[in-house]
Automatic annotation (TrEMBL):
This is Cytochrome P450. Keywords: Heme, Iron, Metal-binding, Monooxygenase, Oxidoreductase. Signal peptide: none annotated. Pfam families: p450 (PF00067). CDD domains: CYP107-like. Belongs to the cytochrome P450 family. The keyword Ribonucleoprotein does not apply. The keyword Nucleotide-binding does not apply. It comes from the Bacteria. It comes from Streptomyces spongiicola.
Length: 418
């Protein structure tokens, strides 16, 4: 693919230090030319004001099929390492009237009433996972990401869309590969085929045996109000709900638990009632956005951002990891975790027409999950220094490969076991 200007930065596919990378990009300007895997070039939009504008600008779209010339004209390989992010037909990638139509259909599943109705399920799943953790020996090191942060949101979303546990486990591996920016072209192509196959199987099952779930509702809604979903839109929309509802919340839990365990004085503020779980949620989303660099949007026309021109048709990434830490918004302490700060403004749920429909469910599962975890395990502590936690191999997500903790203090030698 031809370049219109020199590439300023090659994104680190290993995600070794997303915050330093985000700060460097932000210092270079509101929009910086970057290179993605496979030699594809895009623009990273880096500060709060510019991102907020991009998220609401009608000259910005998420539809590669309509507005990315390289994709339309076949210059993006079908086995491009990030092909799954653009080769979808759902409300995430739809444009104009199609986006409104699909968002309206999906929105019926996330009304405030239906959100609150899911609380008993969240409590059941949370307590079930924590019951299993109680079997750990005193002082034993357990991976809280694998045993709690990962399964809780994944199991919840699977329940909401009517997916079996066996299918969820298999599909989870596909989603993990999708967000891994170190995958090979062969792996990327397999990811695309596997998640589509899994969604087709789910739709076929629910068409034959519908239930009280989002997939069944979407199938039933295909002919309502002239808002017919194509088969591709149906499968891809369900996958978008599964991926967005699980992966981001997994990383949220990972980051929130890490932040509270490394700031015990702030955890005590919550326990004493001087701060709330809402404070924890918003401050975590601000300083440790679960999304780092989200692909992709496209310029419908030339876009001017503080003297930088993003040419028509160029792809855009939103640098969420840089937004909440923007000193122009939060001052010199923008990189500090502080649940007492008055202004916790962030854009981690998005903004504008693509604002996260599941934000209410995400806040509810975060509140129930965190409050119950720290109530059940008041001695919870990290088993390694925080700077030894290994980041996920991706520039798309912000989380750790593992979160080793001790649920209780080790039993002193000779004291026996509980």
């Amino acid at each position: 693919m031809s370049l219109q200007c020199p590439v300023a930065h090659t994104l680190d596919t290993t995600g070794r230090d997303i915050h330093s990378e985000a700060a460097d990009l932000r210092a270079r300007g509101p929009a910086v030319r970057v290179e993605l895997p496979g030699g594809v070039h895009a623009w990273s939009v880096n500060d709060y004001a510019s991102v907020r504008r991009i998220l609401t600008d009608p000259k910005v779209t998420k539809s590669a099929r309509n507005h990315w010339p390289d994709f339309i004209e076949g210059r993006v390989r079908p086995d491009w390492e990030m092909i799954s992010w653009v080769a979808m037909d759902n409300m995430v990638t739809a444009y104009g009237k199609d986006h409104v139509r699909l968002r309206r259909l999906v929105g019926k599943a996330f009304t405030p009433r239906r959100t609150q109705a899911v609380r008993p399920l969240i409590e059941q799943l949370t307590n079930g996972l924590l019951d299993a953790l109680e079997a750990a020996e005193p002082g034993e090191v357990v991976d809280l990401r694998e045993r709690f942060a990962y399964p809780l949101p994944a199991m919840l979303v699977a329940e909401l869309i009517g997916m079996s546990e066996e299918a969820r486990t298999a599909t989870a591996k596909v989603i993990d590969m999708m967000v891994d920016t170190t995958v090979t072209p062969e792996q990327a192509q397999a990811v695309l085929l596997n998640w589509r196959g899994a969604m087709e199987e789910l739709v076929a099952h629910k068409r034959a045996d519908p239930g009280e779930d989002i997939t069944s509702d979407l199938i039933a809604a295909r002919d309502e109000d002239g808002s017919r979903l194509s088969e591709a839109e149906l499968c891809d929309t369900i996958f978008a709900i599964l991926g967005a509802g699980s992966e981001t919340t997994i990383n949220f839990f990972d980051n929130a638990i890490t932040a509270l365990l490394t700031h015990p004085e702030q955890l005590e503020l919550v326990r004493s009632g001087r701060a709330s779980w809402d404070d924890v949620i918003d401050e975590t989303l601000r300083v440790e956005s679960p999304l780092a660099h989200l692909p992709l949007r496209y310029a419908v026309e030339d876009i001017e951002l503080d003297g930088v021109t993003i040419p028509r048709g160029d792809p855009i990434l939103v640098n969420y990891s840089g937004v909440g830490r923007d000193p122009k918004l939060h001052g010199e302490s923008a990189g500090d975790f502080d649940i007492t700060r008055a202004d916790k403004e962030h854009l981690s749920f998005g903004h504008g027409p693509h604002y996260c429909l599941g934000a209410g469910v995400a806040r509810l599962v975060a509140t129930v999950g965190l409050s119950t975890l720290f109530e059940r395990f008041p001695e919870l502590s990290l088993a390694v220094p925080a700077d030894e936690l290994q980041p996920l191999p991706t520039f798309i997500m912000n989380g750790h490969r593992a979160l080793p903790v001790r649920l209780t203090a080790p039993v002193p030698a000779g004291a026996g076991t509980r």
